[in-house]
Design a protein that fits this description.
Largest sheet: 11 strands, mixed
Radius of gyration: 24 Å
Number of helices: 15
Strand content: 15-25%
Helix content: 25-40%
Length: 503
Amino acid sequence: MIKKLVILIVGLFTILSCGKKEEEVKGNKPLIVAQGADARTLDPQKAIDTPTVRVYNQIYDGLVKKDNDMNIVPGLAGSWNKVDERRTIFNLRKGVKFHNGETLTAKDVKFTLDRMKNQPTVSFLISEIELINVIDDYTVEIVTKNGFGPLLSHLSHPGAVILNEKAVTNSSERYDQNPVGTGPYILDKWLAGDRIFLKANPEYYLGKSAIENIVIKAIPEGTNRTIALETGEADIVYDVDPVDIDKIKSNNDLKFLYEQSLGNSYLGLNTQHKPFDDVRVRQAIAYAINVDDIIEVVYKNTAIPGSSPISPKIPGYNKDVKNYEYNVEKAKKLLAEAGYPNGFKTSIWINDNTSRKDIATILQDQFKTIGIDAAIETLEWGAYIDRTAAGEHDMYILGWVTVTGDPDYGLYPVFHTSAHGRAGNRSFYSNATVDRLLDEARISTDQEKRMDNYREIQRIIQEEIPSITMVYNNQNVATQKYVENFVLHPTGYFNLYNVNFSK
């Protein structure tokens, strides 16, 4: 019996050893990435939330893209020429292949942009485009209704990546679960709510990726993501909770990357729900928030107070707008003027995110000082996005990143009347003057005039306060020491194409 047991153990050890050796020979160790939520869809025109984009960013390419300094650089368009204020001609790279073997042509570009016009999530990006003309297989002309100052910036947005017409229209399966792009990675398998498997595209136009396989795992709790990194379960972790930062920094086997982002964290107020339709109530809530507590307790002093809907890193930022310093007495006075001397009951919606839970708890406590009884309701990420888009909430905590680097993207989808709901305006805010100024700035190519408009918009927003910018975020990523060539990007959408393991 003992002899048989020994033989069994030796045999098992041999099998395991051979398996490990085979894996090392093949060099196919997957790159394991952990983030706070699963993708909602892999159709880039259906969702532009950060967890989703971080996945499909590996699958698709756009006509142009933003480099790490936020400069516009070639993507699938090797070059372009602005003919006049309305017309821009894009010259496509030749020989680029989609994952289904189809060759990229100008017809795919036209199909993509025409389809975008009918997608509520992304239509605002190209609402000023009037015509897309196919000149030949590798040349496409985009004609705008008027001038369109942020055209190239908007085409660099992940929601504007190029789709293959045949894959979208002829697929017998759901396209959102069977994406076809030109990017460095191909979808291999998707275990919804858990993880996504990607494999390297052997025909990628810039060359095949060094890492053959990527697994992107959804781990909602920040502390659990940190544990996954410490135990070697993950190679890269997005969005380390502030409470874990020092622990990671002190671990010699790990690397910590950190920089100011282009985004913010804000408290949105549904202006179509009473009592938030009264500007005095919204201002009272703004005065009742002690942001310093949030920065110290939640962010461990790694964020800075917000004073406007767009960050100081974005052109057109207005540093002189109304700032709501913590003032309980002023908040109480405004509530009394609005007819709520004893406050009211309401709710704060959050998704399953540790930092947002902590922020909501602090806000809940602070609001009690002015008589507001705010229950905290936690929703799963997909339900959270869908139901806030439908306007079912009173208050909610979310973030917004001006990923194009142009103030239009930081303001238009969040405050324009046409963007109510899914496009970004979850406060359901409407102001005719703000709409006009946003529209004017969009169609202008006079950059100074555009910036003047954006500064005025911020002034109005801070007076009417449909959302309260609490902090400007810093972004962070932690990796194993052996992970090479991972770099942060100001947008928070990271490219895994160049990532490798040290030898």
